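Lab manual, section 2.4: Encoding a predicted structure.

Procedure: take the sequence of the chain (78 residues), apply the prediction step described in section 2.3, and record the output as structure tokens. A sample record is shown.
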Amino acid sequence: MNMFFVLVFVLVFVLVFVLVFVLVFVLVFFCFFFCFCFCSFLFFLFSFGKNNSNLIPKEKKKKKKLEKTILFNAWVTE
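Recorded output:
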């Protein structure tokens, strides 16, 4: 009878230890996973914003150059 209680105690202890270990592992894994996803999302947003801000002056420069070319062509043909 005494051996039965020891066996039950060991089984319960092992089950609780495994459950706590798995729970902590899953929580840490999801914490790192969501942190990685959030950081990647922020990096994507900032890089996308940086690329947009760089494209606007290039488009303005192209438009200005096109306007100068049109004016030059109009001046040459007159």
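Check your result against the sample. The first helix runs from residue 2 to 77.
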